[in-house]
Automatic annotation (TrEMBL):
Gene3D superfamilies found in the cross-reference section: Alkaline Phosphatase, subunit A (3.40.720.10)
Residue intervals of the Sulfatase N-terminal domain: 62-406
Cofactor entry: Ca(2+)
Recorded superkingdom: Bacteria
Family named by the database record: Belongs to the sulfatase family.
Name this polypeptide is given: Sulfatase
A Pfam family this chain is assigned to: Sulfatase
Natural source organism: Catenovulum adriaticum
Keyword field: Calcium, Hydrolase, Metal-binding, Plasmid, Signal
Length: 504
């Protein structure tokens, strides 16, 4: 450094007296530069004891960060649906820790993804729904990839990580936001009860789907030579609508063989006005476009058209296509020889209803909207086929990665590191999963119960031990007042004003 400074100042042109006067300044510059460099390189080395009294250091582990859009618990290892086929996600779960009771911070794309990438709840950011610009919040808060980049990691991402395929400037070394998607022949597009359009593609277009192109780009980044650790992210868009995947994936799920979810006719009788309105709404997240009765709801329209299994077929096919892309990523990583030094995190931004509680789409505070796949594989630390049933949140991903890398935790981060659960699945975690949708509406999910408090004071309480389908709201039972009160303690005390945006 001193030599570089001397060269920059062309010190050989100065006389000796000038040199001696400048020497203290140059020594000071050299000292300060060394301090900065040491701060960037020297950080705590997380050391974890594993079997046979051996320790592993995860400080410089790479990260493969995989997001899947609109994927509910219809994953083989989660058992969400008997027809679901996800061999590659299952394969990843068998490598590490599957969190079977993981939940989103918000049941729509925008607010969920902003929460994941910043580690902050909607009640802190004011991003409660779609249509509210999340860029200002993301830009003024540190994000996951930004922390890695600032600590010398190579960072690259493609696909949907933040809503609308936004990427924060300065937080990535390489980015390819969005690839064009393959287009179905208009003659082969058909409707599901007037609510959705299905877009099966010709099989020869499989490599031209948006997700296939995204994953190919990410694979290229994985397989290039690396002289430093990396954080590489892939945002897979399906099973988000439009259900635009090759016909061969539809063929794997014959419509007549698809099992319809269990429902009861009077499921919404014990639900308040806000929950009812969300259940009946037609178009996604549009408060003013809701049915005036159950008979005019999206679910009723789909049932009358005889399209319930058709819609499920399209969703299952889209999941299988997404799973295929996950498999491509895992296979590509294995070819690099870096698998044993790479943390893999797979998550979905929120769940999706397909008729449960008389609702289609996301946008509720019930289990189908909030429960998501979350898998964390840390070579040498997580045991194969590990499972934890503890309630956790997607905002826990950020602090988990910070701890594994030995990075300082930003003061604002609200999640709780999952590292204790990675080594002990039954660790006594206190914090439940908190989910928010529209300002003032909150669900609290612990290991057994779901408590919902709406902005107008309406309440719901479900006991998952005895009522896994959330058919019976027991919030008014006096014997459960203490349980309800304990869960209510986790409701945020303050709700940030909502950011400006349209009604979507």
């Amino acid at each position: 450094m001193l030599k570089q400074v001397m060269n920059m100042m062309n010190i050989n042109k100065f006389n000796w007296r000038a040199k001696t006067k400048l020497l203290p300044l140059m020594l000071t510059i050299n000292f300060l530069a060394g301090c900065v460099a040491s701060q960037q390189v020297q950080r705590p080395s997380p050391s974890y004891e594993v079997a046979d009294n051996q320790k592993i250091d995860t400080k410089n582990y790479n990260v493969l960060f995989i997001s899947v859009d609109d994927l509910n618990d219809w994953v083989g290892v989660l058992g969400g649906h008997p027809n679901a086929s996800t061999p590659n996600i299952d394969r990843l779960a068998n490598r590490g820790m599957l969190f079977t009771n993981a939940h989103t911070a918000s049941p729509v794309c925008n607010s969920s993804r902003a929460a994941v990438m910043t580690g902050l709840l909607p009640s802190t950011t004011g991003i409660y729904r779609n249509g509210v610009p999340s860029k200002p919040v993301v830009n003024k808060n540190v994000t996951i990839s930004e922390v890695y980049k600032n600590n010398g990691f190579y960072t690259a991402g493609s696909g949907k990580l933040l809503h609308l395929f936004n990427y924060k400037k300065g937080a990535w070394d390489d980015v390819k936001k969005r690839f064009p998607d393959a287009i179905a022949d208009k003659r082969e597009v058909y409707s599901v009860g007037g609510e959705f359009n299905i877009h099966p593609l010709k099989n020869n277009l499989e490599n031209e789907t948006m997700d296939a192109r995204t994953v190919s780009w990410v694979i290229d980044k994985l397989q290039q030579p690396h002289d430093k650790p990396f954080f590489i992210a892939a945002g897979i868009y399906r099973p988000h609508v439009l259900w635009r995947v090759p016909q061969r994936f539809y063929a794997e799920f014959p419509e007549e063989n698809i099992v319809i979810p269990s429902t009861i006719e009077n499921d919404l009788d014990d639900v308040g006005s806000i929950g009812m309105a969300w259940a009946l709404q037609g178009k996604d997240q549009v408060k003013d476009d809701k049915a005036d009765s159950l008979e005019n709801s999206a679910h009723s329209n789909i049932k009358r058209a005889g399209h319930w299994q058709l819609g499920m077929q399209a969703y299952l096919a889209s999941i299988k296509h997404a799973d295929t892309q996950v498999g491509r990523l895992l296979d590509a990583l294995d070819t690099t020889g870096l698998t044993e030094k790479t943390i893999i995190v797979l998550w979905s931004d929120h769940g999706w209803h397909l008729g449960e509680k008389n609702h289609w789409r996301k946008s509720t505070l019930w289990e189908e909207s909030t429960r998501v796949p979350l898998i964390v594989s840390v070579p040498g630390l997580t045991k194969a086929n590990s499972r934890s049933n503890k309630a956790v949140s997607l905002i826990d991903i950020f602090p988990t990665l910070l701890e594994l890398a030995g990075f300082d935790k930003p003061e604002k981060i609200q999640g709780e590191s999952l590292v204790p659960l990675l080594t002990d699945p039954n660790y006594n975690r206190k914090m439940p999963a908190i989910t928010e949708y529209y300002r003032g509406n909150v669900a609290i999910r612990d290991d057994r119960y779901r408590y919902i408090l709406y902005a107008n004071g309406e309440e719901e309480l479900y006991d998952h031990k005895n009522d896994p389908n959330e058919w019976h709201n027991i919030a008014k039972e006096s014997k459960l007042a203490e349980i309800k009160g304990g869960l209510r303690e986790w409701v945020p005390k303050n709700f940030a004003a909502e950011g400006k945006g349209n009604k979507h």
